[in-house]
Amino acid sequence: MKIHIDQELQVFEERCRNANLRITPQRIEIYRELALAGDHPSAEILHVRLIKKMPTLSLDTVYRSLSTFVQYGLIHKVETIESQARFEVAKTLHHHLICKNCHQILDFQWQSMDEATMPDDVEKWGRIDRKSVVAYGICRQCLEEQEQNSHHITLKGDDYE
Ligand SMILES: [Zn+2]
Ligand SMILES: [Zn+2]
Asked: How far is 75 from 159, CA to CA, in rounded Å?
């Protein structure tokens, strides 16, 4: 999937103006870096990537900008079980797969979920703006590594017999 970053930044700036949100070079760079990232980075990871271009940028500025963007609906915070929040630019509807081992977050599409009506209790509760499913498990790569390791241990055990 090709990301038209210039176009995305134009939309971002327009949305900032509409929301009376100050557009600073830092905010643009933070948004750009997040828009280009495919891995749902944390604030810490984004900061490490950004200081290569902006050595004076503080982690605190990254934190504060991200939380402002979330507040204005420009980006989403991905719900995880980790204490570190992970972020992504708000784009087309999708859900998340999270590996409990390597903490990698992958997007997936689930159209039938998107179109499903919510249970009555939820309808009574109020208005739903966005449905996001998070599925936790172990990714294929980690599964294979675990399998290899357990083979390794078994083989080692055999040596001692
Ligand atoms: Zn994994
Ligand atoms: Zn995502």
From this structure: 54
Q: Do domains 1-91 and 93-161 have the same CATH topology?
A: no
What is the CA(105)–ligand 1 centre distance, in A?
9
The CATH number of 93-161 is 3.30.1490.190
Instruction: Tell me the C-alpha distance between 16 and 69, whole Å.
Output: 9
Distance from the alpha carbon of residue 39 to the mean position of ligand 2, in angstroms: 8
Domain chopping of the chain, boundaries: 1-91, 93-161
pLDDT (0 to 100) of residue 11: 92
Can you spell out the DSSP letters for 79-96?
P-SSSS-EEEE--S--EE
CATH of domain 1-91: 1.10.10.10
Write the pLDDT tens digit of every residue in 62-79. 999 999 999 999 999 998
Query: What is this structure's pTM?
Result: 0.81
Q: Give 152 Cα–ligand 2 centroid separation in angstroms.
A: 35
- Closest ligand, as measured to the CA of 98: 1
